[in-house]
Design brief:
about 240 residues, alpha/beta, four-stranded antiparallel β-sheet, about 25% strand, globular
Length: about 240
């Protein structure tokens, strides 16, 4: 019986900028419908990794494949949500959410309305970004990504710079969308607690140059998460050279 290839397969991925080695020989496999969190110290190369997965950067060595096909550039099957959210200030919430559909000429008002509602933006359709909080801007970016129905959603520190309450609300929104749509998600973060709360699998990576340090499957019993938490913290503390919690 033939086995479907993983959604994402990374082999020997290496990226350098001149003499600066950012990623060194990374292997990574992500399965259909998985929420994979990549946890590592700040500045270790996680954003560069996402840009490589999105096709916005070219590897120095190694390969990135999506459903068995080499990534040679950006594509509608992958959507990257940048750390700062990236909404268009001249467009309303509804126009921001439907932007990609409008560019393709296939706007579906029902899908846009559903994304707006699911992301908690009902009543703000006609608002401009200047009237929104940072958390609401992140919701707009998430709604725009999900309405595109990508095979894979790539998220760069999606909850950074948010207060604890707003961060938790946005995490809940992401989890609800992930469970409803089955979209494959890869998010990078330096926050261990976020990774353990959201992910089905966690990869711990090193300081720059980014290398794999450990991988943990979190689909088992909830009680095992505390064990994983201690292991993840031990690895990260060794990387940064100080106690984290």
């Amino acid at each position: 019986m033939a086995v479907d290839p993983p959604v994402l397969a990374v082999k020997g991925l290496t990226k350098s900028f001149g003499d600066l080695d950012v990623i060194d020989g990374l292997d990574l496999t992500v399965r259909q419908g998985e929420l994979m969190a990549i946890v590592g110290p700040s500045g270790c190369g996680k954003t560069t990794l996402l840009r490589l997965l999105a096709g916005l950067e070219t590897p120095t060595a190694g390969s990135v494949k999506v459903r068995g096909e080499p990534v040679t550039g950006s594509g509608p099957d992958r959507v990257l949500i940048f750390q700062e959210g990236t909404v268009f200030p001249w467009a309303t919430v509804e126009e921001n959410v439907s932007f990609g559909m409008e560019a393709r000429g296939d706007v579906d008002p029902e899908r846009v309305a559903e994304a707006v509602r699911t992301c908690g933006l009902d009543g703000f359709q006609d608002n401009y970004p200047r009237t929104l909080s940072g958390g609401m801007e992140r919701r707009v970016a998430l709604a725009r990504a999900m309405v595109a129905e990508p095979d894979m959603l790539l998220m760069d520190e999606p909850f950074s710079s948010l207060d604890a309450q707003t961060s938790r609300i946005l995490q809940n929104t992401l989890m609800r969308l992930w469970k409803e749509t089955g979209t494959t998600v890869v998010l990078v973060t330096h926050d261990v607690e976020v990774a353990l709360r959201l992910a089905s699998r966690v990869m711990v990576v090193s300081s720059r140059p980014l290398r794999e340090r450990d991988v943990h499957d979190l689909t088992g019993k909830d009680g095992e998460r505390e064990v994983v938490r201690r292991k993840v913290l031990k690895v990260l503390e060794a990387e940064v050279g100080e106690r984290l919690y």
